[in-house]
Amino acid sequence: MAEPYLRVENLTKRFGPFTALGGVDLEVYPGEVHALLGDNGAGKSTLIKTLAGVHQPSSGQIYIEGKPVNFRSPRDASAAGIGTVYQDLALNQLMSVTRNFFMGRELKGPLGTMRMDEMNQIAHDEMLKIGIDFSDPTQAVGTMSGGQRQTLAIARAIHFGAKVLILDEPTSALGQKQQMGVLKTIKRVRARGDIAIIFITHNEIHSRLVGDRFTFLALGKVIGSGTASEISDHEMRRLMSGGAEMGDLKQELAEI
Amino acid sequence: MIRRPEIGSFIVMIVIILALALASDGKAFNALGLKNNIAIIAQYGIIATGAALLMIAGEFDLSIGSMIGFAGMSMAMMLKWGLPFGFGEATPFLAFLITLAMTLSIGWVIGTVVVRSGLSSFIVTLAFLFFMRGVTEVAFRLINQSTQISGLPDYKQESWVADILGGQVFGWFYDLWFMLGGNLNRRGEQWVEGFDARFLWWLIIAGAAWFILSRTQLGNWIYATGDNKEAARANGVPVNAVKVGLFMFTAFCATMFAACQVFDTNTSDAAKGNLMELFAIAIAVVGGTLMTGGFGSVLGVIFGAITVGLVSNAVFFIPEIDGAWFRVFLGAILLAAVFANERIRKRITGGI
């Protein structure tokens, strides 16, 4: 196996007396989908915000291509090739697809003008590459479906140089059909081979469908990890419920 | 076409132009009627452009009217009583420049207070509405012993600055009209010489605003700031700088309004610009600007200014009607515009 693009070693994050992350290790390889699973409050959000430069780690180290890095701001992280697609997607509904795609990073011509035709073309092509043919990029984002918006946000992150794509529960707010659309998009990005994907989800079926490698978090600690072939369905279900045995849970419920 | 936000205001404008032409028997658009109508339209247009850009970025400025009063006072006072701190006589150029420096600084202060405090711009600029009007009156009484200045000398002959602000422009238009056999007074001579200079300033300001908003990176930032400022910030848009800059732009528009007035009439008054902030906002809304920000167009604001300007002047061309009908009309059209804009917004955002 090649070298991981991103490696996290013994990462901890404390907010005052509260330990959100208690020593997390993670390895993310290009061309792979790394599914990050865990219950609410397991530390998934803290972990991705630390990787995205929003939080600074209390201790531990992040490595990019083997070299230690320190992110002081989201800008540092994004310059190092970490592209985060948050749940709210950071899109503006009233603005056109193109204007959203290039928001804050517009292609400029003379007098601060935007090279609109070129930008329309790029926005269209980049979205087509990962699966949707959105013929009119001058349309407002508000008219797009949830899955299309997700694709737009992912295409934007890739176009602006993401080598690690962090997807924060991309399927959670969508209908069944659109969830499949997003999973297809994830597969297409994976097929490029040069981008590592961190896929955060609650949904074990979704993670099974696209995941190459799994990490389970509970209470800020890694309680299990491995490749798709190493982790059985039974083991997966056990880890999803925070490490408790199914039998114990059944008994717990039976006592009521 | 239907996606264009200015379509509603365009239709209303056409209706008003036709109705006024019919009701006034064409007098509203004869040589003098056109000049007088354009004069008020340009006044409204200048401040509404500033108000609209700021609204698209998600903020209000209620201090526009008081800023007009302050700027007019400041220029007239320097022209009459000389430069502050005994620096001698003020030329029109210096009076304008020093005033502009002050109003831009005040705009910067307002914008900075709004973005730093996170308070609603409604309340911050309401405070400046009272503050600036009060300062204007106090300054008038302290230095001038009266809240108005009239009978300033006419600077337009000797100063090109006074002339481009308060003089006449597009004389060729009326010359041409005269050569083609129109534009005649009762003695058969040329009647009107040109438009008020503020027409040119309106065209410059609206043209620049249109270019910036629809074609440039800054325009994209203005839309992004007003739509969802957290999304804009996450993508690296300097949201605060955009807002502060636009508060300075409304101050600039108010100053141009005042400068054109002072050098045209050679007078100033502490009550000048009263209620103008509300007209500016009303025109922006009639022109299709969303109250919630993120959407609007300069072209729509131009149509809105023409509509409101024509109706406010209508009483001069149709003497039978009571002038107060203007406000009845403005209220009705404003309400209609708000509903229309809301429908457009819902269609774009999928009904949320």
List the helices and strands of chain A in order. Answer: EEEHEEHEHHHEHEHEEHH
**Poorly predicted spans of chain A:** none
The number of domains of chain A is 1
Pair of chains with the largest interface and how many residues each contributes? A-B, 26 and 26 residues
Q: Under CATH, the topology of chain B is which?
A: ABC transporter involved in vitamin B12 uptake, BtuC
Quickly name the level 1 CATH class of chain B: Mainly Alpha
Counting DSSP H or I runs of 4 or more residues, the number of helices of chain A is 9
Topology:
The complex is a heterodimer of chains A (256) and B (352).
Chain A (H helix, E strand, L loop, with lengths): L5 E10 L2 E11 L4 E6 L5 H8 L7 E6 L2 E3 L4 H6 L2 E4 L11 H5 L14 H14 L16 H14 L4 E5 L7 H17 L3 E6 L2 H7 L2 E6 L2 E7 L5 H8 L5 H9 L2
Parallel strand pairs in A: 3-8, 3-9, 6-7, 7-8
Antiparallel strand pairs in A: 1-2, 1-4, 4-5, 9-10
Helix pairs in contact in A: 4-5, 5-6
Chain B lengths: L6 H17 L7 H26 L7 H18 L10 H26 L3 H24 L3 E2 L10 H7 L1 E2 L1 H9 L15 E2 H19 L1 H11 L1 H6 L4 H27 L2 E2 L6 H11 L11 H20 L7 H24 L4
Antiparallel strand pairs in B: 1-4, 2-3
Helix pairs in contact in B: 1-13, 2-8, 2-9, 2-11, 2-12, 2-13, 3-4, 3-5, 3-11, 3-12, 4-5, 4-11, 6-11, 8-9, 8-11, 12-13, 12-14, 13-14
Descriptors:
heterodimer, A: 256 residues, alpha/beta, Rossmann fold, six-stranded mixed sheet, four-stranded antiparallel sheet, 9 helices, 34% helix, B: 352 residues, mainly alpha, ABC transporter involved in vitamin B12 uptake, BtuC, two-stranded antiparallel sheet, 14 helices, 4 strands
